[in-house]
Design a protein that fits this description.
It is built from 7 helices and no strands. The chain is mainly α and 121 residues long.
Length: 121
Amino acid sequence: SAMDSGFKAELIEWGVDWDEILDRFMGNEDLIAKFMFKFLNDQSMNDLTACLGEGNVQGAFKAVHTLKGVGANLGLKGFLTPVCELTEILRAGSMDGYEEKYDQIKPKYDALIDILSRYQQ
């Protein structure tokens, strides 16, 4: 079963590094789709939002570090730069400037969830 071409096109437009993940998943687009849809169940963004709201720097760091790892594995370049930057801010035990990074991540995250939700089998 071939991956939906519209789905693939939207992921690439969003900022998924297709060449990278195609290589990582050894050309298996069905497997790529499976792992993309699994991201819908990933709680790290919700955890990040909650922890930042509570001023819980350690919890926020743990959440964004998880998001960074998943994002790297899935080639989610569309938000990986601000995710990495926020990871380093929080790693240092600080919340200085987190709003700017979070405000770059959140709309991209929401857009990705929207794409995944629409194509989910």
